Amino acid sequence: MTSSDPSAPVLTVTGGPPPPDAPPGVLAACDGSDGSLWALDRAMTEAELFALPLYVLAVVNPSPAGYPPGMADLVRESVEQLVESTADGLRRSVAAVQQARPRPYAGEPQLHVVLGNVIEVLLAATADQHTLVVGTRGNGGFSRLLLGSVSTAAVHHAGCPVLVVPPPPAA
Hints:
By secondary structure, the protein is of the alpha/beta class. It has a single domain, classed as 3-Layer(aba) Sandwich (Rossmann fold), CATH 3.40.50. About 35% of the residues lie in helices and about 15% in strands. It has four helices and six strands. It has a six-stranded parallel β-sheet, sandwiched between helices. It is globular and about 50 Å long. It starts with 10 loop residues before the first strand and ends in a 6-residue tail after the last strand.
C-alpha cells in the first residue's frame, strides 16, 4: 500500500521494515505519543550526525489475540482503514517534529507502517541497524512506569544499540 500523495514520503506496508538490502540506519519507533515524538526528534539528530538513513516505523496490531477462522476476511476493510489512518498519523508526526525543530532535518525519512505485534516487529527491524531510538513510554496505560513494555523489550533484546529518550525537563 503506497500513499497516493506524490509529495508524501515513501510509505510501505511490508512484513518487516526496512528491507533486508537497505543500508543500516537510525530506526525510530513512532506511535504518535509525546515520547515517540521526542524520540523521533532525537533520531533525526542521530541520523544527521552519523550521515545515516532515517527509518521511521509504526506498527499496527489490529487483533492482538488473532482472528477466529473466517474472521480475517470480514475485517480486511477495517484493517486497511486502520493502516491508512496510522500512515496519516505517521506523516503528521514527522511533519510536527520537523516544524518544531530549530533546523529541519535535512534528509528524507523513510516511513514504514507494518502489521503485527509491536514488540516482535520492532525487534525484527533492529537487525543490522546502527541504532534504534525509542521513547521511555508510548501510548500504553501505566504512567507510573519508568519504561514502557516496548522500550524495556528493546533495551533487552534489540539487534542493535538502543537509545531511550526521556521526556524533556518540565518547564
